Amino acid sequence: MKRRQAVLVFVATLAAMPASAAPSTYVNERFGTVCTFPDEIFTDRQPEPENGDGQVWLSADGASLTCSGILNVDNDTPKSFVADEKASKEPGYTVTYSKTGKGWAVLSGMKDGKIFYERRVFGRDGVIRTVWIDYPPSLKAKYDPLVGAIAGSLK
After folding, report:
1. 63-74: per-residue pLDDT in tens?
2. pLDDT value of position 21
3. Domain range list for the chain
4. Which of 6, 27, 45, 107 could serve as 152's disulfide partner, Cβ 3.0–4.6 Å?
């Protein structure tokens, strides 16, 4: 039921976008990570890393989107991931919101002066799939409505 709600929110968000906006779906060949996002906003596709673990897109106004996967070599769980991130002493990094569920975790906060939102899905196949979005605080009204839809498309 929650997945259906996420899909409905995503469809509603896409419907509210200008007619010229087109969604793009990225599929990572190495890990099978999938995410959908408005390609009118995230227009600058960065070179894929040599290890093939994901992709980064930049927007003209300073936001970025990362869709990637990693092997869960440390056997992390959603709860252990969130606990580790909350305990981080990394300068300029603060978690202000977190939530976990069966097989997933969400974090939000500030990193290096930007708002970030991260969703991780912990697969039974030993892969953690991630969507990371960050943007300047001045663009909160623009990006906050998009974050849930993009993160909800992660699979």
Report:
1. 999 999 999 999
2. 57
3. 2-152
4. 6
